[in-house]
Specification:
heterodimer, A: 642 residues, 25 helices, B: 101 residues, mainly alpha, Helix Hairpins
């Protein structure tokens, strides 16, 4: 079964091809069904490959498949090769699984959109790119997927590109990712320069050849790359703007593809990180800072999707914190659990938005639990998961990370626990505002604000009662809710589900062991649980009745620490001025001056020369005669004095 | 008695200068044409004179070539002159300055 690994990537690509060729003919909903089936088939193949991989008996279960030699140039031999090990398999399983559910959900959510087939076309390509990224056996194949993911995110974020905000959000996502890509590319160059190979296994076996300073440089350059992709400080603002895309896209970006790519890449290069404690510490600090900053911002956002976006940034910060501590398994645990509950939360938010006819403002929601019972129950599970309330998955995953942080960097543990409190608080605020309290959506009147007008794909103008979504949207919610709730079983060591048993061999001795005593673990777990429950209650108490507490929503937090304004002032406006200077001074004076000057010189000399062309034969004859006389005179003088 | 080649060459120079001068100063296309012929034949005379003096038959051979070329040139040139005369009823070279830049 292992030899069909390539099918995992090929199937979504085939779906992409079919939709590209005949998407418009298939239309709604056949195009969605094709897209969903392609990804679903890929999931089934992944399960098959997973079962086959379980049969492999080796210290590190792995399988590599060389498809063809991609770049055979002298010493640069790059193979289009796939590498399957527990790490990439874990990624593949949840990418394909969750993507299938999101595709299924999109069949309902995107119903009636004029670009319905195009949506699934991009989605399939997105999934295929992500699979290339995680299955690539060398840096360059990973980079292909990396770029594919970036490009698809651009297309999907600006899917409703007739809206100005969506178009610029897409551009923003693309530009931030490009900044990161520069780091990734430089890292690839440096690796090749030192090791003369890009293959992961070869590079890891020859880390000692690179030299410690260069390892740190490579790790930091890779960090720049993953900052862009995984939205870490300082490259995180794009992820909040990316909410302009359709909600299933947000779910796909946040849960299954795109942002987890950075976490995966850092886990993949664990031998490099292990060889560079400085880089690892940098990652841990950036992760902790991102987790905290994003959590504070999430506390004051009004848009339901923005809250979720910043919560993703915050959770990714946790994963980076874990990676920085060397606790890769914990990072992957949170990534998998996060994929389930964040996918669930986004799809739930999509269901809310769908039910309210494209209303995203939390202040205009309220009491939706009475109208959207299924969405409420499933969303509540996601909420309690991310708030880390025991015994749901978030508690175990986050607890795992916090334990490791406590053992590695106690100072960062405090940041982590404060962030955990904030997480519980802002998610409860979101739930309180959306599902409890009074029916504020009915007060807002039928003035049809701008979002309604823009979301014309299913805006029917009048404010009617919120309605529950169709089964095709609620089934994925149930499935995700189930897995989000029980994903904690992966924490049980020694069982068949144990994540540690499964992926620990990949990291081997690079993995950090907290070696905490069981009493310390108990105390930490109790602290986590108490913090989570207390702040869930505080959040609910504060926000389930009242929707307006300006004291808790400072302008600084609502403005996301004014990061966008800062970048605008530091990079945006100086660049604009530079561009304006180029346009107003350099372009007309220097460039046009040079071009016009050359043209003018030829024109002038031509004007002078044409005077000699009189058209009179006698003038030409005189010229010839005179010339002959000169030549003859020259020759005669040479003869006499030569 | 033999005449020294210097005389032949002097005559050749005189004829050539007359031809060149004619081409330069006359406006009538036919006269200019005749002057060109004069220059060609002046050079022919010089060739023959040198061939005789240097005992080299090559000079005389060259004269035949020049004669053939001159004959061909006359055919083409006169054809052009007739064609122009038909259109313009003039043989004044200064009337033909369409190629002015």
């Amino acid at each position: 079964m292992l030899h069909v690994t390539y099918l995992i990537i090929l199937l979504p690509l085939v779906g992409f091809g079919i939709l590209l060729a005949s998407g418009r003919k298939l239309g709604d909903p056949a195009a969605g069904v094709v897209g969903t089936c392609a990804v679903g088939a890929s999931f089934l193949v992944s399960v098959g490959v997973y079962l086959a991989l379980l049969q492999v008996n080796a210290p590190v279960r792995s399988y590599s498949q060389n498809l063809w030699t991609w770049i055979p140039v002298d010493r640069l031999q790059v193979h289009a090769a796939l590498y399957v090990d527990p790490l990439s398999m874990t990624m593949v399983l949840f990418i394909t699984g969750i993507s299938t559910l999101i595709h299924l959900y999109s069949i309902g959510y995107m119903k009636g959109d004029k670009d319905y087939p195009k949506f699934f076309l991009y989605m399939n390509l997105f999934v295929a790119s992500m699979l290339i990224l995680v299955l690539g056996s060398n840096l360059l194949v990973t980079f292909v997927g990396w770029e594919g993911v970036g490009t698809c995110s651009y297309w999907l974020v600006s899917f409703w590109f007739t809206r100005d905000s969506a178009a610029s959000a897409g551009k923003k996502a693309f530009v931030y990712n490009r900044i990161g890509d520069v780091g990734f590319l430089l890292a690839i160059f440096l690796v090749y320069d030192k090791v003369h190979s890009l293959d992961y296994q070869y590079v890891f076996a020859h880390v000692d050849r690179i030299g410690s300073a260069n390892v740190t440089a490579i790790c930091l350059l890779l960090l720049v790359g993953v900052m862009g992709k995984s939205a870490q400080i300082p490259l995180f603002p794009w992820l909040a703007d990316a909410m302009e895309g359709p909600t299933p896209v947000s779910a796909l970006i946040h849960a299954a593809t795109m942002v987890t790519a950075g976490v995966y890449l850092l886990c993949r290069v664990n031998p490099l990180l292990h060889a560079s404690p400085d880089a690892a510490l940098t990652i841990a600090i950036i992760g902790a800072a991102t987790a905290f900053v994003a959590a504070t911002i999430a506390c004051a956002q009004q848009d339901i999707k923005k809250v979720l976006a910043y919560s993703t940034v915050s959770q990714l910060g946790y994963m980076f914190l874990a990676i920085g501590c060397g606790a890769y398994t914990a990072a992957i645990f949170l990534m998998v659990a996060h994929a389930f509950f964040k996918g669930l939360l986004f799809l739930g938010a999509g269901s809310v938005i769908h039910g309210l006819h494209d209303e995203q403002d939390l202040k205009r929601m309220g009491n939706l639990r009475a109208y959207l019972p299924i969405t409420f129950i499933t969303f509540a599970i996601g909420w309690l998961c991310i708030a880390a309330v025991p015994p749901l998955s978030g508690f175990w995953a986050k607890g795992d990370i916090l334990d490791n942080t406590w053992a590695a960097h106690p100072a960062l543990w405090f940041v982590g626990i404060i962030t955990a409190a904030l997480t519980a608080y802002y998610m409860s605020r979101l739930t309180g505002l959306a599902f409890f309290g009074s029916d504020r959506w009915s007060e807002s009147g039928a003035d049809g604000h701008e979002l309604d007008a823009a979301h014309a794909h299913h805006a029917d103008g009048a404010v009617s009662e919120p309605h529950e979504s169709p089964w095709i949207m609620t089934v994925p919610l149930w499935i995700l809710a189930f897995f989000a709730a029980i994903a904690g079983v992966m924490a049980i060591s020694g069982s068949n589900f144990s994540l540690a048993n499964w992926v620990d061999p990949v990291f081997g001795s690079n993995l950090f062991h907290d070696n905490l005593s069981s009493s310390a673990l108990w105390i930490l777990a109790i602290v986590d649980a108490v913090v989570a429950i207390v702040f869930v209650l505080i959040g609910l108490r504060l926000w389930s009745q009242r929707s307006d507490r300006p004291a808790l929503e400072g302008a600084f937090l609502r403005g996301a620490w004014y990061i966008n304004e800062l970048y605008d002032a530091v990079f945006g406006r100086p660049s604009e001025r530079l561009a304006a200077y180029c346009a107003d001074v350099i372009e007309p004076k220097v460039i046009d001056g040079a071009v016009n000057g050359v043209a003018g010189a030829f024109r002038g000399s031509g004007t002078l020369l044409r005077k000699t062309q009189t058209g009179y034969v006698r003038n030409y004859v005189l010229g010839i005669t005179f010339g002959t006389v000169v030549v003859l005179g020259f020759m005669l003088t040479r003869m006499w004095w030569g | 008695m033999s005449i020294s080649p210097a005389w032949y060459l002097s005559l050749s120079v005189v004829l050539f200068c007359i031809g060149a001068f004619g081409v330069l100063v006359r406006r009538n296309v036919l006269i200019m044409f005749m002057c060109v012929e004069l220059m060609l034949n002046a050079s022919n005379l010089a060739f023959v004179a040198f061939a005789r003096q240097l005992h080299d038959i090559g000079g005389q051979v060259l004269v035949f070539f020049v004669l053939v070329v001159a004959a061909a040139e006359v055919v083409v040139g006169l054809g052009i002159v007739v064609a122009i005369f038909r259109r313009r009823a003039s043989t004044n070279a200064d009337d033909l300055h369409l190629m002015k830049g």
